[in-house]
Amino acid sequence: MATTSDIKKGLCIRYNHDIFKIIEFLHVKPGKGPAFVRTKLKSVTTGKVIDNTFSAGHKIEDVRVETHKFQYLYAEGDDFHFMNTEDYNQITLQKSVLDAPDLMKEGEVVTVLINTEDASPLSVEMPSHVILEVTHTEPGVKGNTATNATKPATVETGARINVPLFINEGDKIKIDTEKGAYSERIKE
């Protein structure tokens, strides 16, 4: 058993007869009244995100997990296939379990959290940033860069990202996987 002081991002807990992963949390100490922890929980079975508030000192049941490196192989509809980089076993996960499936490129190495009780995969953690090539975007208009204006661009995985006007087709860009947002252009 853990308490609210043990809450951190990525922790898997058992709550309401389901397993949830904490994706956001905030410890709040109001001037009047007891402290509490405001959390955003994502169900690892359905992918549904809920908001929940735990009072300070509340007991939570954490789930023991192991992390393993898996390589993303390919997608087949809503099924995503991964291979363990140590023993080459393959697993298939549903799209709802993945945090940013549209930013995963074939061959990408990700971290999979596995429940130690029944060896079932719980969630997939992407690297903090991925580098992808822009496959389609409208050309920027010269002299139109006085503000932080952006335009939509499609990257090689099919995801649509808003990028600055100076980005062109063929450029490689670094994308923050947590926010799904443009970080910087990669010079080669």
Element layout with pairings:
Layout: E1 2-3, E2 12-15, E3 18-28, E4 36-43, E5 49-55, E6 59-62, E7 65-76, E8 79-84, E9 90-94, E10 109-115, E11 121-125, E12 129-137, E13 150-155, E14 160-164, E15 172-176, E16 181-186
Antiparallel strand pairs: 1-6, 2-3, 2-6, 3-4, 4-5, 7-8, 7-10, 8-9, 10-11, 12-13, 12-15, 13-14, 15-16
Description of the structure:
- With about 190 residues, the chain is mostly beta strands.
- Helix content is about 0%, strand content about 55%.
- Strands 1-6-2-3-4-5 form a six-stranded antiparallel beta sheet, with no helix packed on it. It has a five-stranded antiparallel beta sheet with strand order 9-8-7-10-11, with no helix packed on it. A five-stranded antiparallel beta sheet has the order 14-13-12-15-16, with no helix packed on it.
